[in-house]
Amino acid sequence: MDDVQVSAWKALPVVEPAPGMARRLMSGKQAMLAWFEFEPGARVPWHRHENEQFTYVLQGRLRLRIGEEPSREVVLAAGDVVCIPANVPHEAEALEATVSLDVFSPPRQDWLS
């Protein structure tokens, strides 16, 4: 029971990983939740990671490009969710003010370090 974490999202520290983007994290041993707020036009550049990723858009619209060239392009709107398998390259662009909740398994160690 010592590992139980309880917090309000707004109480968690904010990190700005790129211009126009804010991130809050909560991580356990097997998975991580990340709350993102994007300004219109904010971009997450092409990258890949060993973590499986689920992105659930709560508000706004997010354009994703997923996979090797030619990549698949999808636009997620509020209520949409996507699963990106481990090691699949992807990028994102906020088409408007957007809020998303991402789940990573295992947790992103690069964000915890």
Automatic annotation (TrEMBL):
Chain coiled-coil ranges: none
Q: Where is the Cupin type-2 domain?
A: 35-96
Q: What is this protein called?
A: Cupin 2 conserved barrel domain protein
Species per Swiss-Prot/TrEMBL record: Rhodothermus marinus (strain ATCC 43812 / DSM 4252 / R-10)
